[in-house]
């Protein structure tokens, strides 16, 4: 029979290894912004903090920006609408990130400009559109839902703007 000390050490090592493996997995963007995000005065400040240039900002001229957040060296988020609830646009410097892990009834895969896009919807409304482009992950979130055509048009414009950037 093995010594209890050795069994305890083996268990502790396994837990340590498991914790290390879990911490190296994809990060949740919600957690990233809630734990490390800082509110910025404008998109220019967020770009400086995050180290990310956001070409898509210009295609939403006319939409009011409610708030802008950045995570140093990693991510940027722009909330559009009077209270920030109309649309949330995120860009993260990583292709290995969980942009949106909410379960949806319907998932649709489409391609714009050779970029695979996932459209997530329920009850006939689109709530999230996600994609990976170049070395970044993107998401458009629509908290109140958008019709399919509007959500796809906004996504297509984002992808085209970022591709040309």
Mean pLDDT: 77
Q: Would you tell me the structural class of the helices and strands? A: alpha+beta
Give me the side-by-side strand order of the main sheet.
2-3-4-5-10-9-8-7
How many helical elements?
Answer: 4
Order of helices and strands: HEHEHEEEEEEEEH
Can you summarize the main beta sheet?
A: 8 strands, antiparallel
Helix % is 25-40%
Q: pLDDT under 50 segments (min length 5)?
A: 11-27
In percent, how much strand structure appears in the residues?
35-45%
Radius of gyration: 19 Å
Total strands: 10
Gap between N and C termini, in Å? 65 Å
Shape category? globular
Description of the structure:
- The strands form two sheets. Strands 2-3-4-5-10-9-8-7 form an eight-stranded antiparallel beta sheet, with helices on both faces.
- The chain is globular.
- It has four helices and ten strands.
- The protein is 32% helix and 37% strand.
- A hairpin with a 3-residue loop joins strand 3 (65-71) and strand 4 (75-80).
- It has 165 residues and is of the alpha+beta class.
- The longest helix has 20 residues, at 4-23.
Task: Give a nutshell description of this structure.
Helices cover 32% and strands 37% of the residues.
Topology:
Elements: H1 4-23, E1 27-28, H2 29-36, E2 38-40, H3 43-50, E3 65-71, E4 75-80, E5 87-92, E6 97-98, E7 106-112, E8 115-122, E9 125-133, E10 136-146, H4 148-164
Parallel strand pairs: 1-6
Antiparallel strand pairs: 2-3, 3-4, 4-5, 5-10, 7-8, 8-9, 9-10
């Amino acid at each position: 029979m093995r010594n209890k000390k050795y069994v305890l050490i083996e268990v502790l090592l396994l837990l340590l290894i498991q914790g290390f493996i879990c911490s190296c997995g994809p990060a949740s963007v919600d957690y990233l912004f809630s734990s490390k995000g800082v509110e910025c005065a404008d998109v220019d400040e967020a770009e400086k903090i995050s180290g990310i240039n956001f070409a898509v900002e210009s295609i939403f001229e006319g939409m009011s920006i409610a708030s802008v957040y950045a995570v140093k060296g990693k991510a940027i988020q722009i909330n559009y609408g009077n209270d920030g609830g109309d649309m949330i646009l995120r860009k993260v410097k990583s292709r290995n990130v969980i942009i949106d892990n909410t379960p949806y009834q319907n998932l649709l895969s489409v391609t714009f400009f050779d970029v695979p896009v996932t459209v997530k919807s329920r009850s006939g409304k689109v709530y999230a559109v996600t994609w990976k482009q170049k070395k970044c992950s993107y998401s458009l979130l629509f908290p109140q839902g958008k019709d399919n055509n509007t959500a796809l048009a906004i996504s297509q414009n984002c992808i085209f703007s970022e591709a040309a950037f």
